[in-house]
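Quick question, first post here. What does this chain look like in 3D?
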Amino acid sequence: MGEQFYQRPSKQGAKYRKLQSKIYNFLERPVGRVALFYHVLVFCSVFLCLGLSVFSTIEVHGEEAGRILFHLEIIIVVWFGLELIIRLWSAGCRSRYQGWLGRIRLIKSPFCIIDIVTICASVVVLSGNGDQ
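> Answer (accepted):
Ran it through. Tokens below.
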């Protein structure tokens, strides 16, 4: 039926894998000031939501803190959802997580399960508070 066709990997493919690798390392193995700043920003935003949740239970600050918390929760759910999608995409740079089965292996890891449960729970809570 013919000979097998050998196609040399393109430079664009190499650039694609390099970008995947950089993003994966940025999210999974943070090194440097930019990565440290990003992860501290994520921590502070989660901590701010926690603080606003406490303030929303106090009558004096409840209404304003609840309103701010609602909008901040929307931003964080979108942010974490995009980060999860980017993390799933960038994990393809590692042979362990290549292909659909590799991505499923990544999704079954404890941190991804926590991310997915947190995002889903936040979406459920936000959908119930949409009338505020």
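Residues 96 and 102 are 6 Å apart (CA to CA).
The mean pLDDT is 85.
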